[in-house]
Predict the structure.
Amino acid sequence: MKIERFDLIVVGAGPSGLSAAIEAAKHGMKVVVFDENARPGGQLFKQIHKFFGSKEHKAKIRGFHIGEQLLKEADDAGVKVELNATVAGLYQDREVVVRMGDEVHHFKGDAIIIATGAAENMVLFDGWTLPGVMGAGAAQTLMNLYGVKPGERILMLGSGNVGLVVSYQLLQAGCQVVALVDAAPKIGGYGVHAAKVARTGVPFYLSHTIKKAEGTDHVTGVTIAEVDNHFQFIPGTDKHFDVDTICVAVGLSPMSQLLKMAGCKMEDNPKRGGQVPIIGEYGETSVPGIFSAGDVSGIEEASSAMIEGRMSGAVAAEYLGYITKEEKEEILAKLKASLGSLREGMFAPKNRGKDIKETEEGIPISTNLLHKGYVLDSEIERFPGVTHKKGVHPVIECTQNIPCNPCQDACTRHCIKIGSHITALPAVDETADCINCGMCVASCPGQAIFLVNEDAGDRKAEITLPYEFLPLPETGMKGTALGRDGQPLCDAEVTRVRSSKAFDGTNLLTISVPAEFAMKARFFKAAAQA
Amino acid sequence: MAGRIAQHPILGCQNENKKIVTFHYDGKEMKGFEGEPIAAALKANGVMVHRYTLKQHKPRGIFCAIGRCTDCVMVVDGEPNVRTCMTPLAEGMDVRTQYGVSDKPFDQQ
């Protein structure tokens, strides 16, 4: 039996695995990455939204573009990626057994990095096995990778970032989202993700869950009902929807079986998503030479997974003597600062399960945002991004501390201030002059920035909003302005449509509405759609 | 083709320049794109049920779409238990609903 040897074997060609391989290969290591899929990139190529973070985290770049960059980087670094290669076993002395086609191959790695990611969780309800019930990730795969609609009328269960982001993507794919449902009393994901779904008119049902998926051979409808504090159904609260598809986004579990098989010390840690290896700061497991990175060692997101990958790659390089301890420390210090800034804010891993009532600035969080997905007109004025002045000015409806700051860099006139602490709420500097360039609107991954001219003459106001749907309205088109709640407010006319390479797919729609709706109108529906 | 996203606001035309192939689903002729997962082509053609379970004869369809759950397995070119979400579509493929582990309905088994 022939056993091929590598300095480093990485399992999983997603964001963390590729990053680990790139870092190790950069230091001269002979690296191979195995992945069971036909394409590399893990889930990155399904992420079509702009990422959060700051420039160093590739913020405001869409996930699939980050995936393309990562593949190129891996290629340039000489990383070998073996696809359709399922790692079936990890044995003593770091022997790796890989199924490729109908053959089983044996490899040996002086170091191993496990970056196998996570799988979707499921909840059981009556009819959950019916065709038409699928993971939100499955829906994302169908529409964003293969251009196929997962369904026509869809109910989403789960209001974490996956549920919110996939709901928005379903709308972008031309599907109808009839409701967003979560058993929890509060929306789990970013408020800005919820708000961009809510303003299109999708209703949120918190403290509700699915009672039954209806249909004999496939889903034809769904009944949800309200639950009490103990997650028991409250009689008489049933609500029925005609749907053909139910998407479930109720969290992820680490796929850590290989680490367990290799004899790494494991723990059951609900805060990290389930069975995870007990690891050091940089992914060192209890078995020397075996490291882990990304979701497999604790559910987070792609940006932090990429940094964890780099860290474990650097640690593996030092473990095998390709870099000195000092070189490693230098690399890790930078990465640690970068990862640290992503793990700040109210959604940070350390804050999971905490009931946060105020922002870091001491401003009360919008309770309506947490329950209904949008900030009330009466609540919005208390946030530092919402100001008033003559002429066009940015209105930033960013009301939670999340690690994200592209708006600050986007504004060349320094109208927007976040400061060095990237979770701070963006504030608008009223003394700086907005030139209506629209870069802030397009750069906000949360689509939370609007350019407002409260007095555009003739008792009209003009609002420029981010728009990522088709068909793209045209100048002169008449329709209805919707409020943050997605309800019709008033007549509106499109006065300008801007698309540009610099906006990266986000179109800027300017609508004219009666002046009194300047701070209320936040979405546009063309006459035929309204 | 029905069920396809003709034009996507971010991704544009996702299946541009892909070759259209013909395949058979339970004897019926269907079209799909070469190399896409069989499951994607079936979904685009409106097929919901991929198989019926062995013991309770319950229907199953696409569930995870990434090769983990095995709900979408079908009989492909005579071979049962083929994960349709992971197997690329090719010209002339014969795709059949799987009943238990057979392509014959239960009353004919």
Remarks:
- The first helix of chain A runs from residue 15 to 26.
- The mean pLDDT of chain A is 96.
- Chain A touches chain B through 36 residues (CB under 8 Å).
- The CA atoms of residues 482 and 489 of chain A lie 5 Å apart.
